[in-house]
Specification:
GO terms for molecular function: transaminase activity. The chain has 466 residues and is α/β, with parallel strands linked by helices. It has 14 helices and twelve strands. The protein binds pyridoxal-5'-phosphate (PLP).
């Protein structure tokens, strides 16, 4: 067998073109075979179909048709976030232009751990991370803000804790709201920090009075984390009040804006993030409200000097004489070594859509959430948890037990008809619709509610929930 074709080099584009045709055909055929947002039949049936289609994972003799067959099976069994009834998680449909850019990243395969592997990619990353830091912190700060690219909110939150620990002289106690993302206490555990203190969030957002009491009582150094867009409900903590308490008590502030951060792009919704620029560090996830293929995370720092904690020296990547001779030192921009140029799809998206284009997408999904909430409220068979803050709507069939709510969700998943999430709030279980698809229309929302009502009715007729 001759050498399989490579993706880059002079022959790369010619080798890729027919393969891309095969991929696109398989995506199309796979989606048709699925016929809905999720493959029908539940985990066992889906796994069996996948095993059947893929066959032996490492055969002795290779199969030239594997690309088409495996991609077809992958697509047929996918949960498609571009389907209007796929609305469970902060799992966005990626923009075609971002996905196309990601192909170029894969083909050229630059790695952002040294300049000689990523000459243009490193400059593009420097430009984009600086611009996004300015977007968050505004121009004219006394200290220069910066940001680094991460694999997502989990890594950003971990880095934020690490930078806080280093800025505080080697240890820091985390003070989190009860509404905070699980990755924050987990990062404290990973970094060997003291047991986090949890501040109540009785109405879904961190209570500033309780925070004040905790900050008064606890010895420093302390790192407070607030959330701008909780995973469950999209709640935004009272950022200015929290920031004021942190200033009074000399605590550091991290804001986890993994979900809500992209409201910055919207003239209509930007004001909800007032106070974001007071944080020492900010998490932003553009594979949520940003329509990027995974991974597209960011950690912004108010003072670029904080990033010196990540400095690292390895002679084969950033030899001192190379750095002195002007080769950019990239190793201190991440805890990873080999690193994908996730910046390419971001740069292409930001420039293709502009702030206005992104803001319009944000406005659209926020408007869809309001419309869906209005449909729920007008329907006698449903209770609405609260008006949506961002693009998440929590609702439940009126009078249902938690077990029925859970069973309705699983029945819809098993049917492959709709993908809804679940959230426990105020002591009850809710169905969660996270609307991230700007193409979802009013008819889709009505269809979603209708499906839930119909499924609830069949379960109520005595079909055993499982
Ligand atoms: C999703 C989310 C995270 C984690 O981000 P990943 O990209 O999944 O690692 C952190 N915080 C909040 C508030 C989130 O919604």
């Amino acid at each position: 067998m001759s050498t399989p074709p490579l993706a880059s080099g002079p022959e790369g584009p010619y080798a890729l073109r027919p393969l891309l045709d095969a991929v696109l055909d398989a995506l199309d055929a796979g989606a048709r075979a699925r016929g809905g947002p999720l493959p029908a039949g539940g985990p066992e049936a889906v796994a069996a179909r996948l095993r059947e289609a893929v066959g032996e994972v490492l055969p002795d003799q290779g199969d030239p048709h594997a690309l088409r067959a495996v991609v077809h099976a992958f697509a047929e069994g996918a949960a498609d976030p571009a389907h209007p009834l796929c609305a469970a998680h902060l799992h966005c449909p990626p923009l075609a232009v971002a996905t196309a850019a990601d192909l170029a990243a894969s083909a050229l395969n630059p790695s952002l751990d040294s300049w000689d592997q990523a000459p243009a990619a490193s400059e593009l990353e420097a430009r984009v991370t600086a611009a996004l830091a300015t977007e968050i912190y505004g121009p004219g700060q006394s200290r220069t803000p910066d940001s680094v690219i991460t694999t997502g909110g989990t890594e950003s939150n971990q880095l934020a804790l690490l930078l806080a620990r280093e800025a505080c002289g080697g240890t820091v106690r985390l003070v989190v709201g009860a509404n905070a993302h699980h990755s924050l206490p987990r990062a404290a555990w990973l970094l060997g920090l003291p047991e986090p203190v949890v501040v109540p969030a009785p109405t879904g957002t961190l209570d500033p009075t309780a925070l004040d009491a905790a900050l008064t009582r606890l010895p420093g150094p302390l790192l407070v984390t607030a959330t701008a867009g909780t995973t469950d409900a999209g709640h935004i903590d009272p950022l200015p009040e929290i920031a004021a308490r942190c200033t009074t008590h000399g605590a550091r502030l991290h804001i986890d804006a993994a979900y809500g951060g992209a409201l910055l792009f919207s003239d209509r919704h930007r004001h909800r993030l007032t106070g974001l620029d007071t944080a020492d560090t900010v998490t932003l996830d553009l594979h949520k409200l940003g329509w990027q293929p995974v991974a597209a995370g960011l950690l912004a720092v108010k003072d670029a000097h904080d990033l010196t904690a990540l400095r690292q020296h390895a002679d084969y990547l950033n030899a001192t004489d190379d750095t002195e001779a002007g080769l950019p030192d990239l190793l201190g921009r991440s805890l990873r070594t080999t690193r994908r140029p996730d910046v390419l799809k971001l740069a292409v998206t930001l420039k293709t859509l502009g702030r206005r284009g992104l803001g319009t997408l944000v406005d659209q999904v926020c408007a869809r959430a309001r419309e869906f909430a209005a449909l729920v409220q007008a329907h006698p068979g449903f209770d609405l948890h609260a008006p949506p803050v961002i693009s998440t709507v929590l609702f439940r069939p009126a009078g249902a037990t938690d077990a029925t709510v859970a069973a309705v969700r699983r029945a819809l998943l098993t049917d492959g008809r709709a993908v809804l999430g679940r959230a426990r709030l105020d002591g009850r279980l809710w169905l969660k619709a996270t609307l991230l698809n700007p193409a979802t229309g009013p008819d889709d929302l009505a269809a979603l509610l209708h499906l839930v009502a119909a499924r609830r009715a069949t379960l109520a007729e005595g079909h055993t929930p499982r």
